[in-house]
Amino acid sequence: MDRCPTPDVDEYAGVLDRRLEALFLDGFVVGLAVLALGYVAGMLFADSGLGGAILASWFGVPLGLFAYQVGMEGYYGQTLGKYLRGIVVVSSDGSDLTWGKALIRNLLRVVDAFPAFYLVGIVSAYLTDDHQRVGDLAGQTVVVYTAD
Predict the structure, then answer these.
(1) Which of 61, 89, 126, 143 could be stapled to 13 by a disulfide with Cβ–Cβ 3.0 to 4.6 Å?
(2) pTM score of the predicted model
(3) For residue 2, is it within any domain?
């Protein structure tokens, strides 16, 4: 995975196609990792692997997904899911994503996810010309296809 791949700034990613697929892929990867770590921690410290996995799913998956998305987008401009789906996050002017913008756009996922199923984010993306969800608008970012 290249650091900050070449974006096609003229081709904004859609709303419910590659972006949603990338989110599911990222959630699956992070969820498996956190549940496995929770199971191992439960076995080591509480003699209950299942209890550790359940506790990890409640707290670890949301926090792990947030940290993963900020870290991967801040460094690479894309997560593994975005890489596999051929999309990248860039600043609205087409420049590489900064750590601050990655943090802002991901902090506002809470707003985008409200009231359920990313409803606010989906509506926002459909109503904006550049398909920006609330986090993208606040962070001044866009999701575009990679030029490769």
Answers:
(1) 143
(2) 0.90
(3) no
